[in-house]
Amino acid sequence: MPFWSGLKSASFPLSDDQVKGLLMRYDTNGDGRLSREELKAAFRKLGLRFGGWRARRALRHADADGDGQISEDEMKELIRYAASKWGFTIS
């Protein structure tokens, strides 16, 4: 059982590595990159509404090479963008 399961009202900010780990769980094809569909699924499972819209916005912001996927090199910018827009915490 996770340490936070017994806490009722506390929230903890996630580190960049923790957010990356959460997002990379949705790399369904195992290529080490996140597609728009994978991002959409990740955002929905993390409880964010409008997953498709958020995935498009995140890609537009963080996909530096324009290939439609978030690579390892682009992940830090995706995490920075997502944290500033939606703030990831465990509550």
UniProtKB/TrEMBL annotation:
CDD domains, per the entry: EFh
UniProt keyword Glycoprotein, yes or no: no
UniProt cross-references to SMART domains, sorted A to Z: EFh (SM00054)
Xref: InterPro entries: EF-hand-dom_pair, EF_Hand_1_Ca_BS, EF_hand_dom
EF-hand domain ranges (all copies): 14-49, 54-85
Keywords of this entry: Calcium
Pfam families in the cross-refs: EF-hand_1, EF-hand_6
Gene Ontology MF annotations: calcium ion binding
Domain of life of the organism encoding this protein: Eukaryota
Protein name, entry field: EF-hand domain-containing protein
